[in-house]
Amino acid sequence: MMADLAFIDNQLKQQAQERYERFGTEPIFTLLAPAPEFRHVPERWYDFMIENREGIQAWLRHYAGPAPEKTMLRFFVSRMMMYLYQHNQFLQISPAQQADLEAIYARFVRNYLLPVVRAEDGISLREQIITALADHQAQLAQFVQAIGRENGSLDFTLAEPVCSQYSPQLQLELLGLSVDSLEGPVLDIGCGPDARLVRYLNAAGILSYGMDRGVESTSHTIQSDWFGFPLEMMEWGTIISHMAFSTHFLHHHLRRNGHPEQYASRYMQILQALKRDGRFIYTPGLPFIEMYLPPDQYVVEQHHIRTNKAAFAAVPSLSNVSYTTIITRL
Hints:
Blueprint: H1 2-23, H2 43-51, H3 53-63, H4 71-87, H5 95-118, H6 122-150, H7 154-158, H8 168-174, E1 186-189, H9 196-203, E2 208-212, E3 221-223, E4 236-242, H10 245-254, H11 260-272, E5 274-283, H12 287-290, E6 298-304, E7 323-329
Parallel strand pairs: 1-2, 1-4, 2-3, 4-5
Antiparallel strand pairs: 5-7, 6-7
Helix pairs in contact: 1-3, 1-4, 3-5, 4-5, 5-6, 10-11
């Protein structure tokens, strides 16, 4: 029985992944419009449902039992969160809203699969599946409206600032670093979903870890936002953040309804997590806070970099933030 449940589970995840790949490049605003293609289901999926009625019924009983199966919901939610962050890296989605999203997908899974058990024929099944997808789209539209209110405006939520990943070599070059200059352990804050620099440094023999809300948790990566991952006092030899934490700090510093105090508090926690002589290295710069660091505790160096100004287009400029900051803890 467990093998049958695993088969159904894998097939449903495959369907979800195919939908993610199909719609993942579409802008967020398309979730607000009743697009007919959103309700389209390939014929082979209907065939799978009809051929596996009993297995799906058993999966639903297991799913709705006293210890509900959370793997499927986590899969759906993680894909949706990845989609939103890839289109707008500055969105803030609270744990409560993530719980709301999980409830939306719990409703969708039941509405999507119950017709498989109850429908009298293939035509009825198709009609009920289309209805379930239309209801799901309406639920997602309400969710987008809600995060719009949380983030200040729907216009901001629907905006799509450039979000890029860089090669490890380019990141090190822009930060003015070489592998030999890094003191371990290294923490890359905002390492990206592929954790390229983390993997590169570990391959070079430098013990490194990364955190990002879009990365899967492994032995060397932590899936978390800026504020959720643990920081121990005097733990790290080097902390790196290339076009990540400081970009978001700048954004909230300049945004009318931003939350710069959260970032300022986290910034100081990052500095306190450095070992003696440890370094926090990041770009773009944060002149509005760097100037207030006590000189008897930290040495602040600023190295201007030659870079394409488009890389900073998502962040309104101060006088000049296109430099790398190196802060050494004394």
